[in-house]
Structure formats: structure tokens, C-alpha cells
Write a structure and sequence with these properties.
By secondary structure, the chain is α+β, with helices and mostly antiparallel strands. The chain has four helices and five strands. Bound molecules: guanosine-5'-monophosphate (5GP). The site of guanosine-5'-monophosphate (5GP) has 15 residues, from helix 1 and strand 2.
Amino acid sequence: MPSIFTRIILREIPSHEVYRDAFVVAFLDIAPLARGHVLVVPIEECEFLHQLSDESAAALGQALPRIARAVLAATGTTAYNVLQNNGESAHQAVPHVHFHIIPKYLAPAIGGDGLAIQWNSQPLAVGDAAPLAAAIRERMGV
Ligand code: 5GP
């Protein structure tokens, strides 16, 4: 079954589209966290970022900064977050890869309250860091 974003990409469901190329479509989020909140979506229908083809990934990498520049220029903002959720427990509601571009306003009344992030960081575990990095490097094939 096509995802809701595929149906938007196919224009079966209306959206306020802001960008389209052979691999990527971007449109305004229907429930923005701030004015100018845009979703950037690969046409390729994958649930998770790590499933994307290199072709789609490269196109997204090129489109994201270009769309971010346009959002900043159109909204007059200079700060923003790029958010990309993978998996229900990581707050992914729509199972089709997408990047949020969320402008940050100095005066919340102008753009909504925006994105709130709780960053529960902890010191890097000294004994774990080296083997963990090695395990990731091994799987990167480097
Ligand atoms: P997620 O939590 O999956 O990262 O974010 C999904 C986003 O898609 C939400 O911000 C939500 O508002 C947006 N969204 C869901 N359905 C629609 C829709 O039909 N149209 C548009 N434009 N945005 C949608």
C-alpha cells in the first residue's frame, strides 16, 4: 500500500509543494512546528534512512541545503533544525523516509513554539568507546 507521502508525491492528495526533482519532493508540513516547516521526501518509498539507495541519498543530500536556503530566505529566519526520525520509538509517524526542516523563530508567537528537544546526554563510556568505534568501523568496511 502506498504511504501517504507517496500519495502526496503522486498528487492524489493535495499539498503545498515547494520543490520537486527526479528523486525528491518537498512540501509544507500539514501540522507545522513553526511557520515554514517543510518535509523533504525521497520519491523512493523506504521506511528508514538506512534502506535508501545511494542515488536517492545523493539527491537528498543535494536538495536539503538548497531547500533550507529557500526556507530561510522566505521566512526571514537564520536558525533551523533538520530532523529525521526512524522507527516508531524514535517518533516516526509516517513510515516513508522524510526530513523535517524546521525554522527557529526568536519570537515564538510568530512561528509557533517550534521544536523542543530534551537532550539527555551522558559522558562517553571510556571503556566502551574504543570497541564500539571499532565495531562500527568494521561494519563500514574501512
Ligand atoms: P514523523 O513523526 O513521521 O517524523 O513526521 C511526520 C510528519 O508528517 C508530521 O510532522 C505530520 O504533521 C506530517 N504529515 C502527516 N500527514 C501529512 C499530510 O497528509 N500532509 C502533510 N503535508 N503533512 C503530513
